[in-house]
Structure formats: C-alpha cells, structure tokens
Design brief:
The protein is mostly beta strands. It contains 7 helices and 52 strands. The strands form 6 sheets. It has a 22-stranded antiparallel beta barrel. An 8-stranded mixed β-sheet has the order 38-37-32-31-27-28-48-49, covered by helices on one side. Strand 24 and strand 25 form a beta hairpin.
C-alpha cells in the first residue's frame, strides 16, 4: 500500500507540474462551491466573446472570457440557480435558468450555430428545479437577447471518483423528521448512517469507521472537533443540532474519494452552504409539537407489564428573515431555532439479567424515566457585492444548550448529567474574480465549550454479576446507582486563515492551489469520579445471594495540590494542496490532486515524563517489564524526543470517462489517501495525571473473577473507606496514591484511510442511476493498551494449581502503590468493501415528484470492537483477531421521495431498512486455557431485518394574498414509524448463555414508537 501511495503521489506531482500542455479543462469546485465549464459553439462570423453567470435570486454576476473555440470556465460559484448571458461579437443571448448544487463540478455545452424554435416558458415554483426533461433545442443563430437558450438536460457530471449524494433544499424542507437536524438525511449517501441514541445524541458514520473520522464543512470552514468524539463540535453527547436547519441551503455528502481540498477526515465528508438574503424580502416561522398523547406506547411501557406512558414533549420553533440591504449589492439573512424536549430512556441490566434477582431496594432504579433538553441556535449573514468581481460575506453562529441527560443502559436516573454546550463561530470571506483566476480568502473564529457536571453528588455503587457456565466465565453489568461521575470542561478556541487560488488561464487545465493555517487552543479540565465509585461483585461471597456490602474496587478522583487541572495546548495546524482537473480528450477527464498536512500539539510534544512515573516503571521498582513484550522506554518522554508527524502526504486521484458526446453515460473511479488526527481528549490524559488523579484500590477476597495480589493498592476492606477521611487515608498510604500511569508512545502517527472507487453513471430521463464499488481501508487508529505485566513479563498465566483458572488481564499486577499502566499508541484497523446502487429523480415544477434511493451491501471488518479505543484484553493490538464489524450492517436500503398532489398537498416519505447488528464478545475458558473473541449476527426482527422505519409527512400550503403574492401559511402532519416497528437495541452478548444473540430487553433506545408530530408555519 505504501509503494502504491508513493507512486500515486509521484503521478500527482508529475501531472501538476507537466500536465499543462494538454487540452481544455473542467472546473474544479472549491469546498462548498460549485463549478461550471463547457464549450459554446457559434457561427464563425459571430463568435462568443464572453460568458456571464447571473445568480437569479441576488443578481450576483460573474464574467469569464471565452477562448477561440468558445470554451468558458466558472471555477467557483456558490450553489444556486443561474442563467447565462452569452455575449457574441454581435448581440447577447440569455439561457434559461438551471441549478448548480453544492460541490458540483458540472459541464454544459451549447450550440448556437443551428436554428431552432424557442420553447414556451416553463412555470416556476419557488425552490423548484428547472425541468430536466425540457426541450434541448437552441435558439436561432441570429438571435437577440430576447431569445432563450435552453439548457435542458445537457448538464453533465464531472465529479471524478467521488461517491456521495446531494441533499437539496427540497429534501430538507419536505422529508419527514423528528429532530430538525439537517444532517438527518446524510444516510441517503452510499454507506452512510445517521444514528440517534436514547439520549437524543446523534452521529454520522461511514466507511467502516466511527464518527471521530467524520468532518463537516459549513461555507467551506471545517467544524471538526479536535478534543471530543463524533467529529463535529458540540456533538460529543448532545441531542442538539450543530446548525439551525432554516439556515442551511443544501449540502453534499461524500462517503469516499474526495478531492484534495478536504482535510482532517478519513471517512465521511459533508459540505454545506448557508442561505443568503436575496433581492426580495422573505421570511418564515414554524412551530413543531408532539407529546406522549401523540405516540404509541414504547415496548418498555407494555412489557413485562403495562405502565403509564412516561411524559414526553418535543417543542421546536424558529424563524428566519432575509432580504436586500441594497438591491444587487448587499443582502442580509438571520435565523433562530429553539428546542425544548422531554424524552424517555430505560434503565435495565445487561444481557437480560432478571431484575427480580436483584434486591428489592434497588428495583426502583430500573424502569423508564424522563430527561430534558433545551437549545437555542442563532445564525446571521451579510453579503456585499461591491463590484462584479468581488463578493464579501460576514456570518456568525451562536449555540447555547443545557439539560439533564442520561441514556438507555445500566445508569440509574440519579447518575444523570447536567450538560452544557456553548458554540460560537464567525466567518469573514472575500472572493475576488479575475478574467482567468479566482481567489477565495477566509478568516474564521471558533470558541466551543462542553462542560457536563453530575446532577447528584455523593457516592456511586456499581454492581456486577460473575457467573460460571461450563468451563467459562462471564461478567455482566447490572446497575450503577447513586451519584454521577461526569465532571468535565473541554473545548477549543482559535483562528483560521485559509486561501484558495484557482487559475484557468492555461489551456487544458484548471489548476487550484490552497493553504490553511490554524492557531487553536485546546483545553481540557477532567475531574471525573469526584464522586467515588465502589464496584461490587455480587457473587463474590459464598452463601450471600447479592453482595452489596464488600466492594472489590474503589475509584475516586482527587486534585494534586501543586498541579493545575486545566490542560491547555496551543496547537498549530497547516495544510497545503494542489489540484489539477484535466480533460485528456473530449471523453476522458482526470482529477489529479496532492495534499499535505501538519499539526503541532505542544501538550504531547513538550511533555516530560515525571521522575515519579519513570521511577515507578523502572527495573528496580517494577521488574515485571524486564521480560515484557514491549519497551517501556518507547513511552518515556524527555520533553525533546518526540517529533510531530510530517508524513501526511495524500494523493487524490480520480477520473471520469464519458461514453457518449452528451455525457449521459460514464464510468468513474479514483484512489485517495486521507489523514485524520489523534483526538486531544486521549493525548491530554498523559498530562492531566499530574494535576488530577483517579486513584484505584482493590480489596482482597472480594473479586471472584480476577482476585488481586496483596500490595499497597490491594488491601483488606474497611468500612471507613466509605468516608472522605478513609479515602484520604488510602491515598496517602500508597506511594503512588493508587493512581494510574498514563503514557503515550513517543512516535505517534496519524490515523488515515486509503479509498478506492469504481462505478458507472447513467441518465435515463428523468432518472439518474449509479452503480459502484468502494474499498476503504483505515490504519493507525488510536488505542489504549494495558502496560501491566506479571512478574515473569507475561500477560496471561495458566495456574497449574487451579483447574478452573481462566485467562485474565494483569490488572492486579501494577507497580506497587500505583494503579494500572495505560499505554497510548496506534494500531486500530478497519476494512470495508461495499457495492451500492443509487437512483435519483430530481423534483421540478414541470415534473413535481422526486425520489432518492440507495442500496448498499457492505463487508466490513475490524481488529477491535467498533468505536472502542481501550484495548485491555490482550497484550498487543496484533493479538486481536480481525472479525466482522459490529458497527456496519451488511445490507442497508434507504429511499426518500415527495410528490405534489392535485389537491395541493405535498406527500413525502422516507423508508429505511437494514440487517441486524453483529455482536462480539470474549470467551474465557479454563479447558483449554484460552481467551477467544467470537461473534454472531443478532437475531433479526420481523422478517430478519435489524432496523426498519417508515415515515410520512403531509404538507398543505394556504395562500393568504397579503404582504406579497408568496405569503402563505403551512400546515404539516408527520407520522414517524408508521408501522410502529419495535427496533430493539439490546441483545444478549454473552456467548456462554443459551440466549446468546437474542433480544435481552424491551428497550428501543433512540428508535421512537409510532409518533404524530404537528407543525404550523408562516412564510412570505
């Protein structure tokens, strides 16, 4: 793979430096922008001189010269509806209107040399597409500006190897949904999933990788979360939306093989454009509502006994206003959206463990409970067009949310978290257009804070069951009750400067280069377990049915007097790219790009391992590492022996081969390497251990599965340890205070993926079809390993004196006085092969229906549980077997559509169905002595599907006839989960249990029962 990457890089550099000698080039759209190029054939005595693209809504004009053959190239246009003004030596022609999508690279050839009769004008509807089935004739050769040049279905795709989908304004406005998260329709792209959990938190994932590897660009600016998971700032565990849906114009979802402009992403890249004001004043408002009276009972409210519905309330509301400041010169747009939500979640033991077996005093902690959430989102934008060559945009976003949050699982309501997210962003953009070049400069600012705190203080009890089945054992989590443990303040704050320069003046090429520099301060303050947690093996004491008095482990956090619990890192990021899009022939287009990225993280690079930690793991104090399978010196930093990774070279290659002159049928493909980054929340743990430390103490005889070896941190239980004084006594009694030792590899790399695609596209008016194959292979994902070893240096030990001994990780063999050694390194791998089929029919006023359907078959595997970073079950990541991915369904089908009916009601629908999830778990056996990772597909629901949901929406617009002729009210009814499918999320994952793979509880997580949502709105 490395050799292939180097060859591809060499090919990119060769083409970029020497390829300018060849024929006319397609346009290269910048991130969030569209492009259009083509050839306009005209009579020899009246050639085309220049071409102007006019944005219909705002009057924005961009003019480019035509070459001798009539070729023109608009390398960067914002997504929207345009018409062309075609200036000839004598006279000017105007085309009809056509729409360019976000990120679209389009080709449009016109012939003005033959005579034809202009067609009748088409009716127009706000937001409607021009009719793709319209007559494709041209106007008479000697026409004037009053004659319309028909573009019809001549626009062709020049997207190269990119695989994805465009989510139009029509889809965003009309498709049924329950959360107004504009990203909810990203799953229409091949291999992409949009997932909501029981807390309402949502995430995007694709390419066999988790959500950390995603990036979203809004108006060309990355929204990457450098500290926390789920890829997008503010989305770590929030049910909130990253952006007001009223402010999004449309967006593009790319599931593989993006161009060189895209950075810090190795799976799904999403680029969205925001709305702008127009030359007319437009405004709208809405209110959405549902509650428990408008939904069916959740399964957990029916089984095992019927209980009253838990209070549910979902109120969403908002407004938007836009219009001219100076017609054709300056416009404004502003929007606000709010959420007020009360939603249910379930508390239950894992693997179907019977609640009746748990003492009565804890049973009230199980059942269905409610959580609450509040969000306010604001977005504003001003655009100024001082000249026909300049566009200036100033925009800002403010997000503020809070709530009481929990999720379906073992955590009792008392352990809930008080969540808080504040996200502030600003952007200044200046685009200047010359005859043969475009420069797009952006300066942006971000300030994001995530600060959850426990809703309840006190002590936490965590109960686990240990059961022996045959020659194996299994441990099941039952309940975590009492106080909460989530206490953090984390975020990022800084400035970004980026510039994209596109040159179209050399025949045969559109050459684009760009650079981005970012100065961002990353901040973490993690004080988890300020409320101490006591863990109980309920089966540890012979003769005691449920042990809840003798814990086997105590964990608690405490600040170090001399340390600062805030970890800050003033990071610097820089990236460069070059892209050349080249028409080799009239049929073959090559897209050749190369990117390089660099990041400096001082908190990691400049960190020096403390003398205390060095001494703790030295041969004199911890001889267990003398014969270990790794060198601890690879994790000891002097403060100057770590170097930032400089090898992030990323070739991005693509091609399109058009089989016919009109470009209706084509083959496409590509290869690309994409680097992501190591999450700062992982890296900071090495630094924060010197300021805030989580102490771990084990108690002799109270763990029937993995008894500890007596030491300073393995002692006899004393009830005094339930008090603050007792815990302080423990902390001072052990030389290391019982804290863990976290160490990072001195040669950390960056995670990356290699992506291949190959497919066919065809336009069969009025539908477009696409059939493709993708291969995505990711490497060097970040993981934590257990650094503890037994006295002989081994990880596992088969005790010959104990015939029931099973493999156990050496947690109890830590350095004396300390907790475990935790090592941060690279090594997670995933592999995904997918075949997909996509069908699209775009809505237009003349053909008022649409359909977007995608079927994806995926074979994905991984060397670790999907989404897991802690890998403490084996000594090395290479010891983990590669099994089928537990986060990627084998089959997935999504279809969405809408239609305007003759009675004035718009009907829209979305249907999704996927195969069951794949379960994986360890089996620890005594005979033979082994730890084995096994897996199986969970039992299907209904007719063997894993998840199925059908939604409908019915919308009626009623004209009012005042303020403007577009004034109307909107009434809408959404029916979510029409078939009331019970999409269960809990399955028995204990391979030794006869119920392995079967549904274990009645919880459906974030999958709602049949729900009716009522909406009303007003627009003008």
């Amino acid at each position: 793979m490395t050799k292939m990457m180097l060859r591809a890089a060499a090919l990119s550099l060769t083409a970029l430096s020497g390829g300018v000698l060849f024929a006319p080039a397609p346009a290269a759209a910048q991130v969030g922008q569209a492009s259009l190029r083509g050839t306009i054939t005209a009579p020899a005595d009246n050639p085309v001189v220049e071409v102007t693209a006019v944005e219909v809504a705002t009057g924005l004009r961009r003019t480019v010269p035509a070459d001798a053959a009539g070729g023109y190239n608009f390398a960067s246009l914002r997504a929207g509806t345009y018409r062309l003004e075609i200036k000839q030596r004598t006279g000017t022609r105007n085309s009809d209107s056509f729409t360019l999508r976000v990120g679209q690279s389009a080709g449009l050839d016109l012939d003005l040399s033959s005579a034809a009769t202009p067609p009748a004008a088409q009716p127009t509807t706000p937001g409607a597409e021009p009719d793709p089935t319209a007559d494709t004739g041209a106007t008479p050769a000697g026409g004037t500006g009053d004659e319309i040049v028909v573009t019809g279905n001549r626009i062709r795709s020049l997207s190269g190897g990119q695989v994805g989908s465009n989510i139009t304004q029509r889809l965003i406005e009309q498709l049924p949904q329950n959360n107004r998260n504009f990203l909810a329709f990203a799953d229409l792209a091949p291999g992409v999933r949009f997932i909501e959990d029981a807390s309402g938190a949502s995430r995007i994932q694709g390419g066999g990788q988790d959500s950390r590897t995603v990036n979203v660009f809004v108006d060309g600016v990355s929204q990457k979360d450098y500290v926390l998971k789920n890829g997008i700032t503010g989305q770590d565990s929030s049910p909130g939306n990253p952006f007001p849906q009223l402010g999004i114009g449309e967006y593009q979802v790319l599931s593989s093989n993006y161009k060189a402009e895209f950075d810090q992403v190795s799976s799904v890249a999403i680029t969205a454009v925001t709305k702008s004001g127009t030359n007319e004043f437009h405004g709208e408002g809405f209110f959405d509502y549902t509650n428990q009276k408008l939904r069916d009972r959740r399964p957990s409210e029916i089984f095992p006994t019927t209980i009253p519905k838990v209070d549910t309330s979902n109120k969403q509301f908002g407004a938007a206003l836009g219009g001219p400041i100076i017609k054709d010169k300056a416009h404004f747009f502003f929007t606000y959206e709010g959420k007020r939500i009360t939603s249910p979640y379930d508390v239950r033991p894992e693997n179907g463990y019977p609640v009746a077996s748990i003492p009565e005093q804890y049973r009230d902690d199980f059942g269905t409970f409610a959580q609450r959430f509040k969000e306010d989102l604001y977005f504003g934008k001003i655009d100024i067009v001082p000249t026909d060559n300049d566009l200036i945009e100033l925009s800002g976003k403010y997000r503020n949310e809070s709530g009481l949050q929990n999720a379906t699982g073992i955590n009792a309501a008392s352990t809930s978290t008080l969540n808080k997210v504040v996200d502030k962003r600003g952007l200044l953009r200046w685009q200047h257009t010359g005859n043969t070049w475009i420069n797009d400069a952006r300066v942006s600012y971000e300030d994001v804070v995530f600060s959850p705190t426990p809703a309840t203080d006190g002590i936490t009890q965590f109960f686990q069951a240990t059961q022996r089945i045959g020659s194996g054992t299994q441990r099941t989590d039952l309940l975590r009750a009492g106080a909460g443990g989530n206490f953090q303040t984390k975020g990022q704050k800084g400035w970004t400067v980026q510039d994209d320069f596109t040159f179209t003046g050399l025949q045969g090429h559109t050459i684009k280069v760009g650079a981005k520099a970012k100065w961002v301060k990353l901040n973490t303050r993690e004080q988890n377990l300020t409320n101490p947690q006591y863990t109980y093996d309920v089966n540890a004491i012979p003769g005691v049915a449920f042990n809840d008095t003798l814990p086997y482990q105590l964990q608690f956090g405490a600040a170090v007097a001399a340390g600062n619990p805030n970890v800050r890192s003033n990071n610097f990021q820089i990236g460069f790219y070059a892209q050349d899009d080249w028409d080799v022939t009239d049929h073959l287009t090559l897209n050749l790009g190369l990117r390089w990225d660099y990041e400096r993280t001082p908190a990691y690079l400049d960190y020096a391992t403390s003398a205390e930690n060095v001494a703790a793991v030295s041969p004199a104090n911890y001889g267990n590492l003398i014969g270990a399978d790794y060198d601890i010196n690879d994790y000891i930093s002097t403060g100057n022996n770590r170097k930032a990774f400089k090898g992030a070279w990323q070739p991005r290659l693509g091609f399109t081969y058009r089989f016919d002159e009109a470009g209706r049928f084509s083959m496409f493909g590509g290869y690309g390497r994409s680097y992501d980054r190591n999450q700062f929340d992982f890296l900071q743990q090495e630094v924060s251990q010197g300021a805030y430390q989580v102490r771990t103490f084990n108690f002799i005889g109270n763990d029937s599965l993995n008894p500890c070896v007596p030491s300073q941190t393995c002692i006899a239980w004393d009830p005094v340890y339930l008090t603050e004084a007792g815990r302080q006594q423990l902390a001072t009694s052990a030389s290391g205070g019982g804290r863990a030792i976290v160490m990072m590899n001195n040669d950390l790399k960056l995670p990356y993926s290699d992506q291949f695609s190959l497919g066919l596209r065809g336009r069969f008016s009025p539908v477009e079809l696409e059939l493709g194959f993708t291969h995505i292979e990711s490497n060097d994902g970040f993981a934590f390993l257990l650094g503890n070893r037994r006295p002989d240096g081994s990880f596992f030990f088969n005790d010959p004196a104990n015939p029931t001994d099973v493999p156990q990780s050496p947690f109890s063999f830590s350095p004396n006085g300390f907790g475990s050694i935790i090592l941060g390194t690279n090594g997670l791998k995933t592999n995904s092969d997918a075949v997909y089929f996509k069908l699209t029919k775009t809505y237009s006023a003349a053909s008022p229906w649409s359909i977007d359907a995608t079927y994806t078959y995926t074979q994905a595997d991984e060397n670790r549980q999907f989404g897991e970073t802690y890998s403490l079950d084996f000594a090395q990541l290479s010891d983990y077997p590669t099994l089928r991915s537990s986060g990627v369904p084998r089959h997935r089908f999504v279809i969405a559509g809408s239609v305007d009916t003759p009675i004035g009601v718009t009907i829209s629908t979305k249907f999704q169905i996927e195969s069951p999830i794949y379960l994986k778990a360890f089996i620890d056996n005594s005979d033979p002595f082994s730890r084995t990772l096994v897996g199986r597909e969970a039992d299907g629901l209904g007719d063997l599907w894993g998840r199925r949901q059908l939604d409908f929406a019915f919308t009626k617009y009623v004209p009012l006839g005042f303020i403007s002729d577009q004034t109307k009210i909107r009434m809408r009814l959404d029916i979510l989960n029409v078939m009331n499918d019970r999409n269960y999320v809990d399955f028995n994952n204990s391979p030794l249990d006869p119920n392995y793979g079967r549904r274990s509880t009645y919880s459906t997580g974030g999958n709602a029962p049949r729900t009716v949502k009522l909406s009303a709105g007003f627009s003008f």
